[in-house]
Amino acid sequence: MLECGMSARDRQALKRRSADLCKQLVVDELLVQSLQADSILTESMAESILAEQTSQKCSWRLLLLLPKRGPRAFSSFISALKETEQQHLSDLLTESPERDRVGDSSLPLPTQEEPRTDVTSRLCFSAESMEFSLDADSPINTPVLPCTPDFYLSRCQQSYRMNSSPRGFALVISNVTFDSHAASDLDPRKGGEVDDEVLRKLFTELDYRVTVHRDLTAQGMRNCIEEFCRCLGHQTVDSCVVCLLSHGVDGAVYGTDGQLLQVGSSDRLQNKPKMFFIQACRGEEMDCGVEQMDGPVRTSSPSCEQRDAGREGQGESQQRGALGIKPRIKLPQRSDMICGFASLKGTAAMRNTKRGSWFIQELNSALRLRSRDTHLADILVQVNAPYKGEGRLRSGNRHHRCKEMSEFTSSLRKDVYLFPQVPAPVLENKYAHRPFLR
């Protein structure tokens, strides 16, 4: 049997840092098993913690239990934090209150001030109030680097024609807010508004005529895409771009009404390079490297990192079955298509509520810096480079061990170079005596 509760000093340290722990603590099986091994938690306690539906509730249930689990509970918790790569939280708990008041913490700061209250009252906090920024970075805004005339002349005959102005039309559909009645279990995609603005600026600078639509139902998305495909202007330009940003599952994306949309191609856009970029989850599995996440997946996150998964678990399967939907995105069956996905099949796509989606951030950066001399397929390979090795997040975020890997499918017959900002005289002279070939 455990002795009396932990010391007043240790109890006060947990209470003083309860808000920080709630925002940053990663309560996973490894941490819980460590506490079980030290006989701090019983099996039933461990199960009740991991059964909670949100990360905040997991953290708070653990924080409510620890003060009652004996004088060794605090030191065992510190050891468990170190074992699970959360040394910064261990340091936070063991530093002196005086240092805390005068020191400059390197940890992320809350977006809004909140009064420190007792643990019980903080059980009612909302995910909205607990969001914080990982750092002060904003999406890269470096101008698109121009292609040189010499590079253009050396590649243009072996690649798709890309000299129209505009280069083509771009459609961006971004679902950020979902119907609270029809899709009550689809959370707002905070940061989605950052993505669509990033894409609008990016493709405008790449000389595309960009149209952005936000918050469309599945039928509205379908109508919008069909209208885009019917546009007669496609006959006079050299390419097109379609970007879909929403919650999703493997093979489909959600409209704001909670209905699923399947995506295909159009005969009207044949023989020209068609670029699709899909920012949505393709499953619920979190890619944590060698550590696999077991048990129920939690959708609600108090941090900046969220997932673009849709409905989860049994409810999702029942809904799709009731609708008779087999949500499979129709991968390119026709030629001249390339489709970039934010995540691998079966895995979640990550999104920062301040800076936008991981995939869109890297796509924006890669296209701005490399489209001058790199074809699109190689650019999409390079998008994955920042994901390799270390996770993208500093320790302190509950997803800090998670990774993301994008992928693409292609039925292109040639390389796609965007040739940004090549002077018009160079374009005109090169094709002046050349047959019009796509």
From TrEMBL:
Catalytic activity: Strict requirement for an Asp residue at P1, with 316-Asp being essential for proteolytic activity and has a preferred cleavage sequence of Val-Asp-Val-Ala-Asp-|-
Annotated Pfam families: CARD (PF00619), Peptidase_C14 (PF00656)
Residue intervals of the CARD domain: 6-96
Superkingdom of the organism of origin: Eukaryota
Name under which the protein is recorded: Caspase-2
Chain spans, region Disordered: 90-114, 292-324
EC numbers, comma separated: 3.4.22.55
Top EC class, one word: hydrolase
GO biological process assignments: apoptotic process; positive regulation of apoptotic process; proteolysis
Keywords: Apoptosis, Hydrolase, Protease, Thiol protease, Zymogen
GO molecular function: cysteine-type endopeptidase activity
Ranges for domain Caspase family p20: 166-285
Record field: compositional bias (Basic and acidic residues): 305-314
Family: Belongs to the peptidase C14A family.
Domain Caspase family p10: from-to ranges: 327-420
Matching SUPFAM superfamilies: Caspase-like (SSF52129), DEATH domain (SSF47986)
Keyword Transferase: no
Record: active site: H247, C281
